[in-house]
Design goal:
Elements (H helix, E strand, L loop, with lengths): L16 H9 L2 H4 L11 E2 L5 E6 L5 E7 L4 E4 L3 H8 L10 E7 L4 E6 L4 E5 L3 E4 L10 E2 L5 E6 L2 E6 L5 E2 L20 H5 L10 E3 L5 E8 L5 E6 L9 E6 L10 E8 L5 E4 L6 E2 L5 E5 L2 E8 L4 E9 L5 E9 L16 E3 L4 E6 L6 E6 L5 E4 L6 E9 L4 E7 L9 E7 L6 E4 L4 E3 L22 E7 L6 E6 L5 E7 L3 H6 L5 E6 L6 E7 L10 E6 L13 H5 L7 H6 L3 E6 L8 H4 L8 H17 L3 E11 L1 H12 L6 E5 L16 H5 L31 E7 L7 H13 L5 E5 L6 H4 L1 H14 L19
Length: 785
Amino acid sequence: MICTALFSSSPAHALQAADYQRAERVHDSHLRGALRNASVLPNWLADGRFWYEREDAQGRRQAVLVDPAHATRQILFESTALDAAVASLGTSGPRLRLASVQVLDEGLRLRFSGEAAIDCQWPRWHCARSQHATPPADALPSPDGEAWLQVRDHNLWLQRAGTAPQALTTGGEAGHGYGVLPDFSLRGIPRRQGRMPTRPFAVSWSPEGHFVAGIRYDERALQDYPYLESSPTDSARPRVHAVKLGLLGDTRQVRDSLYVIDSRNGQQRDIALPEGWNTLSEGGVLGWDGGRLYAAIAHFGTPRRLRLVEIDASSGALRTVLEEASDTRLQLNVYSYSRPAVAILPGQDTAVWFSQRDGWGHLYRVRLSDGKVLRQLTRGQWAVRDLLGVDAAGGWAYFSAGGVDGGDPYVRGLYRVSLRGGPIQRLAADDNDHLADAGSGALFGGRSPQAVSPRGDYLVDTVSSLAQPPRTVLRASDDGREVMVLETADDSAIVAAGWRPPRRERLLAADGHTPIFATVYLPRDYRDDGRFPVIDAMYGGSFISNAPVTYAEAVSALNPVSRASLAELGFVVVSIDARGTGGRDKAFHDSSFLHGADVQLDDHVAALRQLGERYRGIDLQRVGIYGHSFGGYSAARALLRYPAFYKVGVASAGSHNFQGMYGGAIHGMDRLFGGVLPAPAIADGVPPPFAGLDNAALAGNLRGHLMLVYGELDENAPPALTLQLAAALNKAQREYDLLYLARQDHELFRNDATYTHRMWDYFVRHLAGQQPPDVVLAPLPGGPG
């Protein structure tokens, strides 16, 4: 093992309880929500105005009405005015939430949801109990809000205002229901415990509300996967939870099919997919044109194929519009699980289609009747990030993109392009990031982007950088001019906590020529004296990039967290977007295909060495790494592949082998990382394409300090994966530390104070060579206490 005496450089200062308290104040979980009004989601009205929600200085919700044509902005109501208006109705403003706004002949009607629905006439502020029932939180409302869907006993039920609920489907059963959250969503335990009420899953309405479409998942043939809750709160007897889970190599995996229901008469059409094909789950319903819906299906053989299909809602007939093929990945956004950059244009026999067929991510105009590509709309050595909207009448597609002018490819600019062809037009592109309602995958129920007005004349843009808090503006869509400022985020709580912005760096990958980018958090007393240990904060999955470029994501990140906190403890903390991650060209992303995080780790080592030359305060003899989920896999793998470079690692909820992870074409590792399994698939042992990615195979390489962390109810990265690596380390007679967290799930890295404290202690003791101070951290928000 590496002894602390080996670290001859003394720390910049001896750590005290005050340092831990300062680190605690800037932890992501404490700052989540502290940045007020960081973005704006417009709700467009029929007359061209829109409203959005914000928070006042006391954290109370407000609604703002914006008139773009006159560049005016006004608060629809103050909390005190709403309280007074509804006081006689036996309710109060804080318990109400603005659900919808309707344009009337005189003024607006504001409908609030709460214990009962309240309708208020604005600006006269006459309020009364609504005659319309309010959809419950677990309901999926129709587009007009007059009906909604709920799941009961594995079936969909339809409720229309003023009528009794009726069963829309029959025949649903456990493991094969309609709208039921499936176990592969990795929330099976809380769903069974009733702790996770959700809207109907993988279900959506047609725009007019005539049809309901969805995916039906069949998990009945899957084996049970057990989880042992060792210390239930209500019993001394351990409890076993079982969920349905198909592992990589299992011959039986999740199956899926499509269905369409006419909500007016209950007529249902079941659509069987071609043999070997599955829905592209993150794609969902891509759009409707009258009674025809469009979706994406995929076949993950060799080569991989993806089809845009048309389904006739009345007959259930399925027709292939077009097909793409690749030996590696096929997706509809440069990020695997982001909203598809696709738009169906009703009545025009046209779709705007995203493809990486030229090696980058670009937009194409295709004809729906025969799938012919009419023209490539965007081109160049840069990638479209999100399709923000299409003005079909005006003939423009609006999108965000990175690296158009050769700059940082992760910093978005806003652009538009004519559907008739021609050069792209810059609307907003500078050194700041321009966020316009980017979103995650649709999953047959996600909303469409709302940044661009329905008339195509305005768009809402949130502007930010690592050092600049978000500022949201309304832009004219023809030339990008700034019409008015909507919000300037309040970062006073962030500043008061002592948070400091990180720096952005451009580096080179291990191949010596591919540009890669990093975000660096420096200690407050940083000096160029070679005394500061460096920690690699890594995710390692291929789906996202994780080196922040905006103020909001640098303050409170998705994964990993604690970067600013560790900097307060005297470490230089670095996140690197290396080859194999998304957001760039296809070859860059495909570096992780069949290789997991290995190419990324090669790039991380190269990048850290370059940073050591650039930042003379970094001590490259003291390099640590931590990560969660795929980051936990990557952190452990770093110490096993580069034992002379990485000296200390904390690996939480690691997916340490692939054969113990989920498989199949819906969400499996074989789909995401490659390696199509033969038929019949490997039932025992390690599937050959993934044998080299098993961390246990490298257990004998461990030389440094490694702490493995797991939560016993983690469905994303099952505890068995960590314990299987521990077994291999035992067999190799390697020393390591193991932290078990009772009743914890995958969120432990965000909400567990024990994990956070122990992780800090581990780096302080083994990387900084100090004795951690005796201090108790307060429970993190949302944690188990």
